[in-house]
Amino acid sequence: MKAGRLLRIRELTLLAAMGVFAVTVAMADNAFLDPENLLRIANSSVVLALVALGSTLVILTRNIDVSVGSMLGLCAAITGSMVTDGHPLTVVAPVVLLVGAALGLVNGLGVTVAGVPAIVMTLGTLGAYRGLTYIYTGGSSIESIPREFKTLAGTSLAGVPLFVWLTLATVAVGQLLLSRTRTGRHVYAAGDNAEGARLLGINVPLIMTAAFTLSGVLAAAAAMLFAAQIGSVNNQSGTGIEIRAIAAAVIGGVSLAGGVGSVTGAALGALFLTAITNALLFLAIPGFWSDAMIGGILLAALLVDARLRATVETRRTARAYAVGPDQLTERPASAEAVP
Amino acid sequence: MIGLPVRRLARWEVALVVLLAGEVLVLDRLNPGFLDLGRLLASSSDYVWVGIIALPLTLVMIGGGIDISVGSVVSLTSITMGMLWTAGLNIWLAALCGLGVALVAGLVNGGLIVLTDAQPLVITLGTLFLYAGVAVGASGLLGVSAYEGISGLPPTFVQLANGSLLGVPNPLLAFLATALLAGLVLHTTPLGRRTRLIGVNPRAARYAGINVQAVLVSTYALTGLGAGLAGVLLTSYFASARADLGATALLPVVTTVVIGGVSIYGGVGTVAGVAVATFVIGLLQQGLRFAGLSNDLVTVLVGAVLVSAAALRYGATRLVAARRARRVRRVAGVPPPGAAARVALTGRPEVRANAPEEARR
User: Fold this and answer.
1) Do the Cβ atoms of B343 and A193 come within 8 Å?
2) Residue among B40, B27, B43 nearest B288 (CA)
3) What distance in Å separates the CA atoms of residue B132 and residue B151, rounded to the nearest whole number?
4) Most buried of the four, A322, B126, B166, B179, by CB within 10 Å?
């Protein structure tokens, strides 16, 4: 209940921060708030949003997946070469999603069966999958993606790009599954307290493996959108997106300590990161400052978050001991210090 | 019982040395002439910088933290040097300033971590962006192309990483000095002992009256300094200051620390292991390339090696712990405990298996 309220606050704070940000940028140049530009931001955030969705699933189970960029790269290369060879989308999409699932499954099994810490496992596959991409493409980039595939990126439904609809639908389904189904709650339980979840009869390794596998599937889905939007795939496609995806999740209120956060938050985080890069144009700041901006905003969010958490914690302790917050001599080191 | 973990650790380091020896023999068989001392020495400059960052990072990770911003600090150091030199400062002074910036970057990492109580991974994720972004931004301000960097550095400075002393290349000397220093700090000083205790049990460390915050900040500062030194050496080695110099440093550095036997959960690890691991990975990459494998295949193989080594290490720990737990239960005549005493230190299933290991320390 407590966590639930905090969670809602997290997403609301992010929305408020995005509002303040948008108004600030609009004061410099109100073209930023043109519906056309807002749609452009949404459209260019879809790849990051889908990847962040997968990363969030994994992070919720108290693991981490830094191989998503390499999975995206490999899947984009496969997409590119398959559509170039003239395969219809009905063949390409299942194949690519299956490849993504397989890549994610390898991560999941490495973590749950072999017992390799997630960051080590996925750092290993980050390198390995990138290497496979080079081998698959033979080092050359795929430029001749057919026009009919690329036009998908420009297709709109009711004025909103098709890809935005697809992403919205995925986020909505993910949100519903995570918050309204038994399995979804098991994901949170496994991440919050693996041992406790096990004692409740939850198959924690299965949940974790599924999360890694879905992360691969979502990276594969993002790869197809990427190939259609960019229109070419090279060996570097997707590098560094894993870090952006984690940043999006963290800004969206997902805790790397597991069990806290939502895919909606992560998607909003992805939207915010994209908006920051886009806003630089309107603020007449050279694009090469975008990483510094993202880092600064991420750190600021963490500082504010820590301050908020400390306040909440002090209040809670004070209530537990029935004293005023000012009567506590020391704030508890962490939540578990509270009896 | 108390001797056991030490013996087990010793075995990991021994295993690494055996692995290194076997690897060198195989590589020598694959490409005759690989085992040429002069060639091995000369080529060490290609990879020892990884160790120069990995060694101080070992301290951070033994303390239960992690720093993923090291690559960005390398870039920041390099571009700071380049900018100051372009502005007319003596190159050595510029290098010193670069090191200073790296130290500050490390202090900021540590400071933010103890200030916010947030996970080190998240904080250094933020600074990873921030430092790399500032480096790219600064080089953009100067109008330097990201791919060419600032070149034309003075020959005396370029000589720093390309020269040698008594046949030993300078970067290797820097690596040895770093290893010696890191070894002394970790294994003989109060700072090292405190870091390890914090990694094992932060609360116990706090109750023992240790200034946890100061210790943690010091380890991050040292890591910043290590990344700075690597940045200066790489700038000299490539004779150009670039904003993306450290962009790909993270993977090899963390791989080295993990293969070196440092636990990602803190508390476990030695400097010797990480020092040996630097060569295990460096020589593997070089040998495979020397044997005619493409760079891409080498990346795949190195990734596979990282994963299998980690699986071996963590899998073995799990098995040992499970067997021990069974024995303890048998001796004590206790039925298999449903509720393991250790509920989720890290919230992962193998924690249960690790718990006896903790109890032994």
Assistant:
1) yes
2) B27
3) 19
4) B126
Query: pLDDT, tens digit, for every residue of B212-229?
Result: 889 999 999 999 999 999
Q: Is the per-residue pLDDT at B17 higher than 50? A: yes
Residue B41 pLDDT: 84
Quote the CA–CA distance of B155 and A133 in Å, as a whole number.
Answer: 39
* Least-confidence region, from A2-11, B60-69, B105-114, B163-172: A2-11
B319 touches chain A (CB under 8 A): no
For B310, which of A116, A128, A306 is closest by C-beta distance?
A: A116
Q: What is the DSSP letter of B151?
A: E
Residue A161 in 3-state DSSP?
strand
Report the 10 Å Cβ neighbour count for B101.
23
Secondary structure letter of residue B189 according to DSSP? S
Using a CB-CB cut-off of 8 Å, the residues of chain A touching B342 are 195
Going by C-alpha positions, the residue among A187, A181, A182 that lies closest to residue A204 is: A187
Give the 3-state secondary structure of A47-68. HHHHHHHHHHHHHHCCCCCCCH
Yes or no: say if A252 and A267 are a contact pair by the CB < 8 Å rule: yes
B100 near B167, Cβ under 8 Å? no
A121's tokens: 């496992």
- The answer to whether the predicted template modeling score (pTM) of the entire model surpasses 0.90 is no
The single-letter code of the amino acid at B95 is A
Exposure on the CB side of residue B22, measured as CA atoms within 13 A: 6
Do B347 and A258 make contact, defined as CB atoms within 8 angstroms?
A: yes
* Structure tokens given for B168: 């030993």
Cβ–Cβ < 8 Å for B112, B127 = yes
The alpha-carbon gap from B158 to the nearest alpha carbon of chain A, in Å, equals 28
Number of cross-chain residue pairs from A and B with Cβ atoms under 8 Å apart: 199
Average confidence score pLDDT of chain A: 85
Put simply, whether B296 touches A (Cβ < 8 Å) is yes
Selection from A41, A44, A49 nearest residue A167 by Cα: A49
Report the C-alpha gap between A223 and A51 in whole angstroms.
Answer: 9
If one compares B180 and B245, the residue with the highest pLDDT of the two is B180
Amino acid, single-letter form, for residue B56 = P
Lowest-confidence pick of A207-211, B259-263, B334-338? B334-338
* B322 touches A at CB < 8 Å: no
Structure confidence at residue B87 (pLDDT): 83
Whether the Cβ atoms of residue A310 and residue A330 lie closer than 8 Å to each other: no
**A245–chain B nearest CA distance, Å:** 11
| A124 within 8 A of B304, measured Cβ to Cβ | yes
When scoring B121, B299, B305, B319 by the number of chain A Cβ atoms within 10 A, the one with the most, hence best to mutate, is B299
Angle at B14 between CA B9 and CA B16, to 5 degrees: 100
- Chain A residues in contact with B339 by the CB 8 A cut-off are 195, 199
Residue in A with minimal Cα distance to B136 = A288
Best of B298, B300, B350 to substitute, by most chain A Cβ atoms within 10 angstroms, is B300
Q: Going by C-beta distance under 8 Å and a sequence separation of 6 or more, which residues neighbour residue A67?
A: A103, A107, A122, A123, A125, A126, A129, A242
Residue B342 has pLDDT above 50, yes or no: no
Please tell me the least confidently modeled range out of A88-92, A154-158, A193-197, B291-295: B291-295
> CA–CA distance from B246 to each of A102, A152, B241 (Å)?
31, 37, 11
Q: What residues of B are in contact with residue A247 (Cβ under 8 Å)?
A: 125-126, 129
